[in-house]
Design a protein that fits this description.
The protein is built from 10 helices and 10 strands. By secondary structure, it is an alpha/beta fold. Helix 3 packs parallel to helix 6. It is globular and about 50 Å long. The termini are far apart.
Length: 262
C-alpha cells in the first residue's frame, strides 16, 4: 500500500495529462522523500510546470495517482492541499501588486488560521487572538528569515523582480509547508539575486526542515543544491538520479544539445 514508508512525502504514479491532442505528461513516476531537494529540469515545453500544476491541484490529470503523505489527493481542491502542507510559488509572480509586502505574506497564513465564522467575521475572541498571533509569527519569523523587514510596508508592485520572488517565497513559507513547490524561483534574476535565493533555499531546507521540489533552468544551481534530479522531455521522464548520473545519460545530453555542462 502506498504511503506506508513514513519517509515518503510525495509519490507520483503513472501520471498522464493531455490537452486535446497534446500529451503534456506521459506516465510519470516520482518519489519525493522527506528532506529531499528534488530538482526537475528539461527543455521548454517538457512538462515541468504541468507536473507542479497537477501536484498543487491547478490541473487534473486524466490518469495516474498523486499520493501526498500516504493520501491520494487527485480530487482534493487546491486550498485543501494547501491546508495539508503543500506550499507553492509560481514561475510568473502571482502577487497582489497594490498590497504591501506584509499583506501579501500574511495571506499565506490564512489557511492555517482556525476559528468560528462569527468570531472571524467580527474579529473578537479566539478568532482575533489567533489572527494576531499568526501576524506576529509572520512578522517575526518569515519577514526576518527572508530579510524583508525593511520593505514590509512597500507595495509589491514597486519592488524589483528579485524581491518580488522573495515575497512569493515568503507567502508560501507563511503556510508552514511540509513540501514546498518552487517553479523557477530564480527566473529573471541577476547573478547576485540568484546567489541570495539559493542561500534562502538552503536556509529553508536546513533550518525549517522543509522538503523541496523545484524547477530550474540554471544547471549549475541545480547541481549545487539538489540531492536528486529528474529530467523531463516531451512530457516523459528520461532520467532520474544524482546530477552526476543524469549528466552522463545520452538522452539527457541529446535533450540539452547546445547547452554547456556546468
Amino acid at each position: 500500500m502506498a504511503g506506508l514508508n513514513k519517509d515518503v512525502v510525495l509519490e507520483i504514479k503513472r501520471l498522464s495529462l493531455a490537452f486535446g491532442g497534446v500529451q503534456a505528461l506521459n506516465k510519470i513516476d516520482l518519489t519525493i522523500e522527506k528532506g529531499d531537494i528534488f530538482g526537475i529540469i528539461g527543455p521548454n515545453g517538457a512538462g515541468k510546470t504541468s507536473l507542479l500544476n497537477c501536484i498543487s491541484g491547478v490541473y487534473h490529470p486524466q490518469q495516474g495517482d498523486i499520493i501526498y503523505k500516504g493520501r491520494r489527493i487527485n480530487h482534493v481542491i487546491p486550498h485543501k492541499r494547501a491546508e495539508m502542507g503543500l506550499g507553492r510559488t509560481f514561475q510568473h509572480v502571482e502577487l497582489f501588486r497594490g498590497m504591501t509586502v506584509l499583506e501579501n505574506i500574511k495571506l499565506g497564513r490564512h489557511q492555517r488560521i482556525p476559528g468560528a465564522f462569527f468570531s472571524s467575521l467580527f474579529r473578537f475572541g479566539k478568532g482575533l487572538r489567533t489572527e494576531m498571533r499568526c501576524r506576529l509569527e509572520v512578522e517575526e519569523k518569515v519577514m526576518d528569515f527572508l530579510d524583508l523587514s525593511a520593505v514590509r510596508w512597500k507595495p509589491v508592485g514597486l519592488l524589483p523582480q528579485g524581491l518580488q520572488k522573495r515575497v512569493d517565497l515568503g507567502r508560501a513559507l507563511a503556510l508552514e509547508p511540509d513540501l514546498l513547490l518552487l517553479d523557477e524561483p530564480m527566473a529573471g534574476m541577476s547573478v547576485e539575486e540568484k546567489e541570495d535565493m539559493a542561500s534562502f533555499m538552503m536556509d529553508v531546507h536546513r533550518d525549517l526542515g522543509t522538503t523541496i521540489l523545484w524547477i530550474e533552468h540554471d544547471l549549475k544551481t541545480v547541481r549545487d543544491l539538489s540531492n536528486k534530479v529528474c529530467v523531463l522531455n516531451f512530457g516523459m521522464k528520461i532520467s532520474e538520479g544524482s546530477f552526476k548520473e543524469i549528466r552522463e545519460n545520452p538522452q539527457v545530453k541529446e535533450a540539452y544539445l547546445g547547452v554547456e555542462e556546468p
